[in-house]
Write a structure and sequence with these properties.
354 residues; seven-stranded parallel beta sheet; 13 strands; alpha/beta; 2 domains; Rossmann fold
Amino acid sequence: MPDAFLYDFLLANGGAEQLAITTAGSFPNMQLHTGFINPDLYDEDVAHTLTGPVSHPALQAIKMLYVFRNKMHDLADFDTVIYSGSYAPVAVWNHGNGKNIYYCNTPPRFVYDLKDYYLNKIPVWQRPVLNALIHYVQPRFEQAVEKMDCVIANSRNVQQRLRNYLGVDSDVVYPPVDTTCYRWQGCGDYYLSTARLEPYKRVDLIVKAFLEMPDRQLIVTSGGSDTTRLKQLARNAANIQFTGWISQQQLVDLVANAIATIYLPLDEDFGISPVESMAAGKPVIGVAEGGLLETVIDGETGILIKAVNQQKLIEAVGNLSRKQCDVMRESCEQQAQQFNTKYFLQQIHRYLRG
């Protein structure tokens, strides 16, 4: 019997999306099913889709829960099903006697660890709507996780979240990074930010720091809900460039020629971007929290900033000279190999056939 991988939706070109595609594409009998895809980033045949996108995040969450619970009726045809995301796991109720594995990139953060953060970011009149959504999502998510035969966390950080918020024990399998495609090509004249443009990724802090360093170049890739605000913030800055969403090859080329990358998300789950940076021999200026504590070695493969703020970031950029970047190159490349795709697939295979 075939296996299946279910993931919420392929909207961005992030680590969770690449994990879903890599896993499903690496096992001959595995099919990828998802809510919908972004046709600007993915070919239509990359996955079986259930529906189309919804512009409003709250309605999208409700719709995804509905379609995975009510439109995935053919799961009985699969032996093992791997679920990933916040909404796809509810399809577990449609899978009969086979094995159910949940690969957790994180419990939905707006429900758990970042609940107050999200509530404080929106107008007071919208907060009852978000609270209602949380109360709708939380029990359905938790009931689905309880039904899993096995739960895998993508980092020790997420493992602790699962334990703290759901009382669930899990194994840790770090997500796959295609370290073979990232290569050092040279040292250009720019620093690179690759995080999605969402408030909790704190790209605004990076932009503000470079506004005070007009002699240093910053390239900001990706997109997200914070795009307009960030572009407005940097509207008069000749040293800051936004690329929008870019292809995988464009990302590889930008990383290969950067001085270093900068990545400052709030308590990141794991963080694929720092590993990709190190695979190209590029050190990471990051924050000393979350998944970066598991991937970046402070002083050897980058600089980790405690209690990050604008001034500390400026100091870190100043301390990481091109010469220092060259010294760190070999350590970066070696560290990245711990997270390569081959090792990930070996571990997942054991769960599939164990």
